[in-house]
Amino acid sequence: MKVIIAKDAAEIARRGADLFEQVIQEKPDCTLGLATGSSPIGLYQELIARCKAGKLNFSQVHTINLDEYVGLEGTHPQSYRYFMDSQLFDHINIDKANTFVVKGTGDIAENLKEFNGKLEQTQTDLQLLGVGPDGHLGFNEPGDCLMDEAHEEVLDESTIEANKRFFARKEDVPTKALTMGMGGIMRAKRLVMIASGHKEEAMRRLLLEKTIDPHCPCTFLRLHTDATVILEKSLADAIGYQG
Ligand code: GLP
User: Fold this and answer.
1) Is the pLDDT of residue 98 over 90?
2) In DSSP terms, which residues pair with 183 in a beta bridge?
3) How far is the CA of 131 from the centre of ligand 1 (A)?
């Protein structure tokens, strides 16, 4: 596992975008696995800027997102489809027909079947990840075992607590979500995780302990042969990690 310590949000965005640029240059019709949350926003802004400057071309790129809340239509401002459109897709030259965010409404079993079908057909070239304060990836919550395939998860109280900032009231946060399973994540050729903000406990377990623990899903990154963590310096300092 490679760890890049980045001094601030601008460096996180730049280093992350460099990794994306490398993959898109090497393979213009690559498949990118994308993430939501606040961590990737700066990186998406950097990708938009590079696309507008003519340095990046998304015309042949396909994307597949990690997760979606159950019960929110894609037009809901807190849905992850809406997030992806407004934070990235509407500003780059991607064909939206080539972007996939699982639907969180309608026939959930059918939606999951479609999601798993996509994952079976696709080899993701680069999977971007954020991380929850409890170490969750996508919405794979800590537990005695983790799921391989895409599935529905009941969100942990700490996840609802962490994500309530995006909603008017805590009661508005959906209690369930659909997520790519750990298998879908781990089968990507390359993983890039952004760790910024208050993720001390998850980063302490990933970077300072040598265990692979389903109670902290991000520790599975240790098993991947091409995983990069872009770690905010303040977070590295907070846990006493020096590289
Ligand atoms: C949500 C998403 C995760 C994301 C996490 C961290 O729970 N499902 O994929 O990694 O938020 O979000 P943030 O980057 O805002 O800290």
Assistant:
1) yes
2) none
3) 6
Q: How far is the C-alpha of 24 from the C-alpha of 159, rounded, in Å? A: 32
Q: What angle do CA 64, 66, 72 make, to 5 degrees?
A: 100
- The closest-lying atom of ligand 1 relative to the alpha carbon of residue 67 is 8
The verdict on the CB of residue 39 being under 6 Å from ligand 1 is yes
Q: What is the DSSP string of 169-185?
A: SGGGS-SEEEE--HHHH
In this structure, which residue's CA is closest to atom 12 in ligand 1? 37
* CA–CA dist 130, 151 (Å, integer): 19
The yes-or-no verdict on residue 243 having pLDDT over 90 is no
DSSP code per residue over 35-50:
--SSTTHHHHHHHHHH
Cβ–ligand 1 distance for 66 under 6 Å, the answer yes
Model pTM score: 0.97
